[in-house]
Amino acid sequence: MDEVKQQKRGTTKKRDDYLEGPEYFMAVAFLSAQRSKDPSSQVGACIVKENKIVGIGYNRMPNGCDDDLLPWSRCAEDRLDTKYPYVCHAELNAIMNKNSADVKDCTMYVALFPCNECAKLIIQAGIREVIYLSDKYHDTLEVVASRRLLDMAGVKCKQFEPKRTEIVINFNSINDNNPQKRCRTSSPVGGAAAAAASAAQSDDCDRK
Q1: 79 CB contacts (<8 Å, ≥6 apart)?
Q2: pTM exceeds 0.70
Q3: Which residues are catalytic?
Q4: What is the end-to-end Cα distance of the chain in Å, rounded?
């Protein structure tokens, strides 16, 4: 019986190198970060509920504020001449961009461990877990305060451990004409009927 099922399914097996859920969601956060105009730090966030994306955001200036007129500097004699009083972090924008009624009990995937201001938003929004990639600002006052708040509120924080160092998006891959991906069938039906059946199946496979 198993041999019959195997013959019906054919010998083609599913891919082994597909993106698993956590990798996919973190990759979406990183892809979103590419929308950021910040010259020094591009950060993205992705909010997930029951394995479905319900919010995406990246660091940017507020809506309606001209990002050509506001500063992008990290350092200046006057703090008002830096980006920090103005820029909206990825976590804030992901929450504001939600496509569901709320983000309660959701998980947030984010490139950097959230700052204290974003921690407040995460707690107030009801997000229950934060999965971050980098904690490079671990010892700063903002992140120390953030950890304290998140811990007190019972928000789980876990560092993401990637299975691969990079994910490449190749727009040309959809046009790959690898002959191994085409269907090749054999049929006991002879003559024109066999040729027509083979051509129809090959054409159908090439469209997918």
Answers
A1: 85
A2: yes
A3: 91
A4: 30
